[in-house]
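pipeline stage [seq->struct] | target=F420-non-reducing hydrogenase small subunit | organism=Desulfoprunum benzoelyticum | residues=314
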Amino acid sequence: MGVPTALEWLGSCAGCEIAILNIGEALVPIITEALDIVHAPVLMDHKYFGQCGEGVTMEIPEATVGIVTGGVGNHEHVEVLEEMRKKCKVLIALGTCATHGGIPALMNGQDRKTSWEGIYQTLTTDPGATVPTVEVPAPLDRIYACDEKVKIDMQLPGCPPNPALIAEVIVSLLEGRPPVLPGKSVCDTCPTKREGKGAVTTVKRFITNAEFTPGEPISEMRCLLEQGYMCMGPVTAAGCAKLGAPSCISARVPCRGCFGPVRKDGNQLLDMMNALASNGIDFNSVVDRRSILRFSGAHGMLRPVKKRIEEEES
């Protein structure tokens, strides 16, 4: 009998679950021998209130290890997360939605009422639709990361997270040792050439290819930030590296920041402005600065901005 394990997903897209499958052949002995999965909505039909709905309170089996994906966006998410925390000895937040809010937390940057109305209605197909008030969990005031609602024992970000790191976390728990995880930034794991401040002083939009010679190794390409592109490697946690280079960089594409901030309470927006300035790039040339927080808008990082006219009227 393996270690009792419960898996749950909140406001998620199933990308993290697919990342678990992408562990590959190494996943087979983990699932068949090491873990005893007692609850996993993505895999098994296990009802919260009994198989026939006879229960009156939510019930998730007790487990040694709990893995939660997705952010917290409505009252049902809170209830499920609190039950997981109650029943699991070790609770892991997997994926950037769970650790930092992820893409859904972009809604935190605008008025909640406007956001939900935009989701449930469109001007061309259903202009009279309203946000449901019955039979659908009520939305929270914003999108939260899991650790804003309950105590999280371990966080493993990524959109999606690196399958190799997921395997390392699971195996380390089984072996009773701390996991070996990256503790540096994407830049620290990037092999591109750095030559100091580039000649570019304004941020270039990534609508043209980076400068490199086709077929040359990544180590021969100049740093994309020094080329003037908005590469968020300096302010993003490492962990996506495959085949010796960060995933985006290996495709000659600037890092988009999907692993969240390097520092636990880091602000990718503020830190990125400093990174641009240190590379001689005018941060005022960034068209939409708040989009830098596209993966880390929870923890109060993204908030609605009142329109100037509203401020003048007040």
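stage status: PASS
auto-comment: The longest strand covers residues 3-9. The chain is about 25% helix and 10% strand.
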